[in-house]
Amino acid sequence: MRSFWIACSELRSPSLLCVPWFLAYLLAHFLCPQQISAVNGDSIAHEDHNHPRLQKLSQVLALRSEVGNYESEFIGFDRSIIGRAGGDNQNLASNAPGQLNIEQGSTQFWTFSNQSLYGPKAPSTPGLPSSPLMTFVPATPDSPDERILYISLTTCLQPTPKTSSQTGPPGQLELYVSKSSGNTQPNAADKDYAVAIVEGFGSLNISVKGDVFFGISAPGNKDFTGVYNYQLTASVDRFYASNSTEPNVNFVDSDTSSALLYTNSTTNDNSSAADIKQWMNGPPPFSIFVQNIDNPSIQGMRHSVCALQNFADARSPAVIDAGMTSAGDGRPKQQFHVRNLNASSTYYAITAIIGNSTDSGNGVVGGGGMVWGSGSTFTTKSGMLFSDVVDKSAHNSCPDNNCALLFNLTFCSSVAYSAPANFSHFNVTVLGQKYDAYARDQYTNFSRSLQQIACDTTSSAQYSLARNCDDCDKAYREWLCAVTIPRCEDYSNPASYLQPRAVNQSFANATLAAQAANDPAFNAQNRSRVAFSQSRNPMIDSDIQPGPYKEVLPCSDLCYNLVQSCPASLQFVCPLQNHGLNYTYGTQKRGTLDITCNSPRAGISIGGASALKRIGTLVAWVASGVALVIMDI
């Protein structure tokens, strides 16, 4: 202020000319941003909270920008409460994030006032139907005259490495909280609470009745350059931003350029029919972010919605198709088809909700969104012919790529995995239609046979007291789709549970199978055995012609369930152990998340528990009739 009076004293009539300057200076220097907005007739709950306030602030704070105390530039982020990044405390209001850049090695301070604490709570808004994925239990104040304050901090930007040799993320921001009017600028040495910030997110709820003070410190990182950007939010309603440690994404399958993923089921056994219908008919609420593990851009910020929105590799609807599905277990879940991926690459996927599913941003309860877990990893298929165990020097430059990801089929709606393909003959859409039509044609024979069974009769006259014709029909559909549309894996995959198929054919890239003489599957004995030399479905070899591939065998439970669910008169039988079962059916191995046998429920999670843990251990060869036929192997 001394420099202000010196500047005015140089004028001939300072007492008159400096009055308006002095008033503007006082207004800019001593009033917080919320008070300035109030002077101009604005409100923190303005429908468009950015541009009107910024325009008025820029007029009132014009003089301040000359002094150099105001940080006016932000790096591509939404701004709500804007203030100086100096040593003075800045004010927070409920559900209105304070967002600023902060230099490394510096600290900024904020205040949530008693007036905001006891202000009106936000009105309830329409939300998602009840779900085990999203539960909020309000905390209880310590005394009747106190309120719960929900505090959250998210990191939206962090410094970047100075050199490529630095692979880890910089240090996390630090958040300190004080409830004492005697400590308005809490720090590491003097605070009531220290909030742990993990992967760019931290939260705390406390019972209070007075002003609450916050200190945010940015660590110094000698190997990194640039600033942090964060959102600090306090709310009397619930957390503005939140995080669940439980992952909410399940890898279903991939081909060489895309992957299919599901969220956990959004309902459970206690969900009402109305909730299930609302989930299936409503818009898909979740977003997914997919990142190549070799790209470190979101390391250290994987729990932050604003960071994922800005830096994840795959985050745009242009490369992600999303929708609700009940495939597999009949429960609602969200499906993501992520395209434009690289072959033989490992990614991690993170699911989130942007805002509270109906609205987001400043003034919205839960407007900062929610993130589940730190990412579930998956690897795309390589499309290569041979693994490192076999000399593949002559084949690496000529990938086979004979597995195509199929889903959303009309008849075989439970199919959501890669099937044998030949892209020289069919694109993915036509291929899926061909498989689906073939399965439907096979079902016609079964349907005629089932019509001969006395289904519409009293329970005592039915073929079983435990199962009925509907159970038989469902079991047959599941079995039929699994055997007519086998689950395909790279021929180069060396896993022991995979069954080589069609080894007498040329590969889809026109190389001869005979060139693979060093592969045990191509020895003379195996080339003469049906289980190795042919596909399970004869249409695959005659029409699609994918060449040699490996199959994830259907789970034996599919066969057992079919035999148990249908009348004995249909003559369904399953092969015996060591007499065909091991070449036609698989079992889900315990202690692994790998899908070691194919089932409509493989990879699906209910309430956070993978269906892989619940399925047991069907498939003979497809025949033109109804009965299962055990072929010579």
Strand order, largest beta sheet: 1-3-9-6-7
Strand content: 15-25%
Give a quick account of the main beta sheet: strands, pairing sense, barrel closure: 5 strands, mixed
Query: Helical segment tally?
Result: 15
Could you tell me the radius of gyration in angstroms?
32 Å
N→C terminal distance = 94 Å
Q: How many structurally independent domains?
A: 4
User: Overall mean pLDDT score?
Assistant: 80
Tell me roughly what share of residues is in helical segments: 10-25%
Determine the structural class based on helices, strands and strand pairing: alpha+beta
Q: Assembly state here?
A: single chain
Task: Produce the secondary structure layout.
Blueprint: H1 2-9, H2 14-30, H3 33-39, H4 51-60, H5 62-67, E1 89-92, E2 98-102, E3 107-112, H6 114-117, E4 147-157, E5 160-161, E6 174-178, E7 193-195, E8 201-208, E9 212-217, E10 224-225, E11 228-235, E12 241-244, E13 250-254, E14 259-262, H7 273-281, E15 287-292, H8 305-311, E16 320-325, E17 333-338, E18 346-353, E19 369-379, E20 403-406, E21 417-420, H9 428-450, H10 469-484, E22 487-489, E23 498-501, H11 524-527, H12 530-533, H13 538-544, E24 549-552, H14 556-565, H15 581-584, E25 605-606, E26 609-610
